[in-house]
Amino acid sequence: MFQLATIFEKIKEDFFENQIKNEDREKYGLIFSPFSTGFTYDDFLFLDSNSASENAQKYMDELLEFSQIANTIPKEKNYWTISDQQDYLFFPYGNIVQTLKLIDVDTLNTAMLCGHPIFEKALSAIGGKSQNTYRMYHLKWTELMRTRDNLLQKPSSLNQQEIEAQLKENQRELEQTEAGWKLNGNKEQTEIKVLGIIKDEFKRFLNKLVKTKGQLETLVRTHAGTGSDFYLTSCTPNNLYKGDDFMWKKITIGKEEIHDLLEKMKTETYNDIIDSEELSDLAVESISFELLFASITRAWFDETLLESPFWDINILSKEDIAIPRFTSKLIFIRNVEFQAPEALHVNKELVKSVAKKSAGPFIIDSDSLDKTGKFKLHSVNKALNLDRHTVLDVGAKLNRKRKSGRAKPVVNQKRKQFVALAGRVRSLGNRKPLRSRPIKKTARSRAVPSTSRRITSIPRAKTAETASQKKAEQESFQLIGVVSKELEAFPTPIKNADYV
């Protein structure tokens, strides 16, 4: 049912048109979840610090959960799940910040800097004619040095007299270039300015580093229930607990646009989260939903530190500092609706025959099908009345369970298990209570031993009528994926510079 994929294509289109500048497009990617997870506005009360005093345990639980969701490092490009392997941004970032070696800027010279990107940036920052003249001599000198290195690397079996003659001519041209460089190319003055700019940049880097270290020390928390360390993380808008107080973007995809999107999109991108055979006979004339990108804010994280050449690190396992990409935004949607008035009766029979069946990451609820041919898609946990953490935990284990590099078989298996689990929960909720026997009185009553294990009771399933009536209240919005941002390779130390 690849009509579903047009939702994700439309979200991508909106992001790249309205959320970022064109020059940054290559750094970003949108990754969607195989299991849509529903939240209520109250699940985000942790964004309001005043709520901490009302229910401290709930407040800390939500802080931990959001930090893990927002800081999971996206490892896969075709699907996103929360990590259960401690792949959280704050761990490798903390390893870098706490154990890096700093450059000794007093030992820097232009010979070390030559060829490094920071040298070109500093040269461009000078501006004016002196920069252009210096660059002309610098380019000629660089080319001559490259020719010299190539001559020195030629095998000894070649004509050595010819190679020596070429080296002698190369040396003569280098000396002439350097003389002209000093006389007419403002060499010394320009290099003094370049070194000054780089040293000032190092001071700014050091100030950022000191600030970041301080934030890492003050913003760490330990969850009492699990003993897990995490770092306080927020988002903008920071009042998601008041979801109707800010603007959600209403998007409607008509029949023609659905066709156009299907024509141009790469369907293999969504193979892991959408089954093309699933509900393939379902008629769709329009799709509508409301969209919100929530930007992640981390006072303890500064990506510019990672891209700086002013640090290096000694470490045995590069995995301990690996951050190929990080989550920049969370993708929330709500009120997801399909509409096909002309195919009302066909869809009605089809949807009812697969009541509460998966439709990609969503669940189709047959109770929501109305007389206009409109039906809603809900999250897995809200539609099936399952605990949200159950859905997140199953997704977290996906990477370990999949085989042969394919996620789809495991995803499909888990969807079936979700539906089956919901059925068992529903049957338990509808089961009549057993008639209790009268308790015989004894001379002594035995105390029940206490236990530290927390037992979670199975939530009682609500009736179909109640669930249909209160669906909008139960599910404020759905987390459907993340926006990831790639980082440049690091570290990028300056060759032959001293790091201590």
Automatic annotation (TrEMBL):
Residues 430-473 are annotated as: Disordered. It comes from the Bacteria. Residues 432-444 have a biased composition (Basic residues). This is Uncharacterized protein. It comes from Flagellimonas meridianipacifica.
